Amino acid sequence: MNPDAVIRAEQLRKHYGDVAAVDGISFEVPPGESFGLLGPNGAGKSTTMKMIGGVSQRSSGKLSIMGLDPDVNGPEVRAHLGVVPQQDNLDEELKVRENLIVYGRYFGLPLSYLRPKADELLEFAQLTDKAKSRVDALSGGMKRRLTIARSLINEPKILLLDEPTTGLDPQARHILWDRLFRLKEQGVTLILTTHYMDEAEQLCDRLIVVDKGRIMAEGSPASLIREHSTREVLELRFGSERNATIGAELQGVGERLETLPDRVLIYADDGETALEQVSARGLHPLTSLVRRSSLEDVFLRLTGRSLVD
Fold this sequence. Notes:
Domain ABC transporter: 7-237
Largest sheet: 6 strands, mixed
Keywords: Antibiotic resistance, ATP-binding, Cell membrane, Membrane, Nucleotide-binding, Translocase, Transport
CATH architecture of the largest domain: 3-Layer(aba) Sandwich
Membrane topology: Peripheral membrane protein
Oligomer: single chain
Distance between the termini: 36 Å
Strand content: 25-35%
Main location: membrane
Shape: globular
Family: Belongs to the ABC transporter superfamily.
């Protein structure tokens, strides 16, 4: 156990009737770490975030936030948290700067603090020139940056981010990543859920993969790739009908073979060597691609490829 952990969960459970949304998960988060929760829809990620945020009581197990029990000391815990919900819930009737100041008043913060703090956060979020604009005139990326700026008004020690870049274009996502990197450099602990595997690789020092309320794997993105996948992946396309039958002819190439409707994946430490072996067997794919193994390969291997409603 890490005595310095700012979040500690032990056999954490949350039940809704007979359904176990979170089924006995345990993890620790040290201060200043960027910690991710990955999993398909319904895996228990958002439920875990709600319990950390003190807005949903656990059914059993232990949960400590900065040494406090959120079920007992909810207001005290929330005073040190910043929350970025999956959907922006900004006040569309207020101007950009007013959103920050009004939100800060909910924490009982004085205007003498809030006025300069709002200007500081607008600069951090690259929204200074939009300070007097109405929120409904902002782009999606600007609204997301404002939501993050608002979550920082109370100078939180822990920032909870639920799907922080969903719906944003690549440029807006990278700007947001930069802002989150800066927060981490300032010592803020980040807890985030995301469906974007590249985002998890970029932002997370460590993460857990959750499925059906249980932890399937835990570690850094690089260590999870090493443990659950190969160094490279060879993607082959033979045509939709041929893909389904080519597997038998590819046995023995690479370490593992996966047949999908649109392509065949060969997991190997050396993708080019695997491709040479395919050619040596007289097999000629319509397209071939050698790429490095990614966190998405790990995620899909651990949680499956079928859709979850």
